[in-house]
Amino acid sequence: MRVAIAGAGAVGRSIAGELLENGHEVLLIDKAPTAISVERVPQAEWLLADACEITSLDEAALQRCNVVIAATGDDKVNLVVSLLAKTEYGVPRVVARVNNPKNEWLFNESWGVDVAVSTPRLMSALVEEAVSVGDLVRLLRFSHGDANLVELTLPEESALAGTQVGDVEWPEDTSLVTIIRGTRVLTPSREDSLEPGDELLFVAAQAREEQLEDLLSVRREDAPEA
């Protein structure tokens, strides 16, 4: 897979290193000569250019990329790079870094963004995820389909504790993708049971999040006798 990363700062270089270790082809683009540190990521391709300019992206052969990552520290730049990558070069997957949470509303399919990653919000979500049991925590937003990656740690008092995955009537537009149980990562099957303390990861439509949280967190009381 060929990946272009706009922004060769600490974030861009770190992403590049991870992708290269996984066998991908990576191009780092930055307009600042001081950011071009080939010795730090020698396996990557490097391009000294302004990623907001069509001529630069032509030189980068963006049309050959499977993924473009807009990882600069400037939200305006990341939006422009995302829009050009999607509309001018038809890049299948565009991931954009959000530096200011107030700008999150802009990072959607109208600007060519498939996945928006807000560092401040993600850090906040990870703190919540570490200390919250029974509360739905939003980890990541996907622009297409208005879906989110959400997590909930199943509390002991949940009505679904001990229930098999296949016996649960999940809300519409919701998919259980992973169960984390201790050090194990489980791909859910219909026969797997839900156990207290399980970390459950879902891809869910935003409109279904409250319904999903209610389903997992609240133990239904028996109806009072007439």
TrEMBL record:
Residue ranges of every copy of the RCK N-terminal domain listed in the record: 1-117
Keyword annotations: Ion transport, NAD, Potassium, Potassium transport, Transport
Coiled-coil annotated residue ranges, if any: none
Lyase in keyword set: no
A Pfam match: TrkA_N
Recorded GO MF terms: potassium ion transmembrane transporter activity
UniProt keyword annotation of Ion transport present: yes
Superkingdom to which the source organism belongs: Bacteria
Cellular component terms (Gene Ontology): plasma membrane
Domain RCK C-terminal: 137-218
Protein name: Trk system potassium uptake protein TrkA
